[in-house]
Amino acid sequence: MQGLPLKTVLVSICLGAAVASAARQQQAAVDCPSRDRLGLLPAPVDVRFAPLSSIAPGLRPGEVPYANSERTPPFQTGRKALPHLRSRIHLAGRPAIRRDQRVAGEAQLQRLARELSANAAGRSLQFEGWPTRSALGEDTWTWARYRVDASSPWIWLGADVLQDSEDAGDEPHFHLPVQYDTASDSDHHLIFDDFLDFDDLDSKPVFGDIIWVDQDGGNSVLSAWNNPDLRPLYAQCAPAAARRFGIELPQPALFNDAPVSFVANVSGDRVEWLTDFDVAPAMPPSIGAEIRPVQVTSWLPDFQRFYRDAVSVISGDSDALFPISGTSMRFTRKSSAQVDHHLEYLNDFLEETYRK
């Protein structure tokens, strides 16, 4: 480029870089994973009469947990069990819902039924939903669909159902479906763009909470609740029909590691649960300090050894031998953010130790 003006050289360099960047992007767009690795279902699933738990992924083997802002984690209603402990750890026979959470869910259902009663001509309505933990840590519910009875197809609820309702006061916020059409630039942005492209750094793309359907408000599901890491690939590689219409909804709860949804019938002020579950004790509103007399007046002769061994077991440096059930394991995953954490088993170990 000897003898060329500096401006011409700079323009050439910029054009060359732009062409190279476009070529890299085009190459990346061609290198797409298979349909199943992309999260697409083998065939569209008609969910007009099927529970949404039937198309939920549940816990995928080896999948790492995500922050609540990336994808709403499923609410645990039963007992998590690691594969190597399934034969030795008792699993619950039915899902369990806390009493206070059930009461909150029934109040939400009655509110929804009141809003829909005009369209339903005063008839009883059935609702499908599941317990959810909100981004604020509140235990609440997701309500996805409603129908007149079991012989009628499910109908999606919408965020606009409550637009004319009374103030909910202190009632915990609950989740309703939000529909998207990615032909709209704003909807495409909310699902697929990187969080650095949002005006608010607290905002994240909602891709991980999206159910992809065949048409606006459709009931044929093409893909659902995908791995958030697939977001850029899905935007480029998924068929156009499988990335056009989306419904944002937290994924169903889990019962013994399997997705589960709940159905309730609302007639007037009466709520009847059509899904069986156990009612667990309510969470206490607060735990106050209680002053009690000294309980330990003398220490065991081998307390120092017992304490050292307990610290080694709880820290995961040595195996824990459950004194009653005989289970043996090592507590190596102690973060509540880990889907397969050992905290529940640590609690069981301590219970057995003190009981003995």
Provide a compact summary of the structure.
With 356 residues, this protein is α+β, with helices and mostly antiparallel strands. It has helices at 6-30, 99-116, 185-192, 231-237, 303-314, 343-355, and strands at 40-46, 96-98, 125-133, 139-147, 155-156, 178-181, 210-213, 220-224, 245-248, 253-255, 258-260, 262-267, 270-273, 278-280, 320-321, 328-329. The strands form 5 sheets. A 5-stranded antiparallel β-sheet has the order 1-8-7-9-6, covered by helices on one side.
Secondary-structure blueprint:
Elements: H1 6-30, E1 40-46, E2 96-98, H2 99-116, E3 125-133, E4 139-147, E5 155-156, E6 178-181, H3 185-192, E7 210-213, E8 220-224, H4 231-237, E9 245-248, E10 253-255, E11 258-260, E12 262-267, E13 270-273, E14 278-280, H5 303-314, E15 320-321, E16 328-329, H6 343-355
Parallel strand pairs: 2-14
Antiparallel strand pairs: 1-8, 3-4, 3-12, 4-5, 6-9, 7-8, 7-9, 10-11, 12-13, 15-16
Question: Would you write up a description of this structure?
Answer:
With 356 residues, this protein is an alpha+beta fold. It contains six helices and 16 strands. The chain has helices spanning 6-30, 99-116, 185-192, 231-237, 303-314, 343-355; strands at 40-46, 96-98, 125-133, 139-147, 155-156, 178-181, 210-213, 220-224, 245-248, 253-255, 258-260, 262-267, 270-273, 278-280, 320-321, 328-329. Residues 17-28, 81-90 and 164-170 have low confidence and may be disordered.
Main attributes of the structure:
5-stranded antiparallel beta sheet; alpha+beta; 6 helices; 356 residues
